[in-house]
Amino acid sequence: MKSVTFLVALTTVAVVLSTVSANPYGGWQPIENIHTYRIQEIAQFAVGMHNWENNFKDPLRLVSIRRGLVQVVDGMNYKLDVMVAEGNRLDSKGSLYRTEVHVRLGAMELIFFTRIVKGLN
């Protein structure tokens, strides 16, 4: 996997901490609201980086986020299960992928992006 880091806008600590349960340090905690702009931005980043790493061959398109976990480390780790459409057709079948993104000081790094279920609608 190509290692690329992009800079993104910083969010406030209050916003980040509001997405996790009490005492979030160390282990993975569920993200209480996966529909925030920040979580959507992280999911879009993961899909975009996957497409870039594969030279935009058979590009994926984010459809929805199914669940998310966050881990407070030196920055934040986000593990998301995302539904993506394969190809550019609107009626294309989707697949479920698991991705992890590390965010620190406004920079995002894709750790992994792996399909876990293929051919869902």
Automatic annotation (TrEMBL):
Keywords tagged on the record: Protease inhibitor, Signal, Thiol protease inhibitor
Classification via Pfam families: SQAPI
GO MF term list: cysteine-type endopeptidase inhibitor activity
The keyword Transcription belongs to this UniProt entry's keyword annotation: no
Signal listed as a keyword: yes
Signal peptide: 1-22
Protein name: Cystatin domain-containing protein
Taxonomic source organism: Linum tenue
Phylogenetic classification of the source organism: Eukaryota, Viridiplantae, Streptophyta, Embryophyta, Tracheophyta
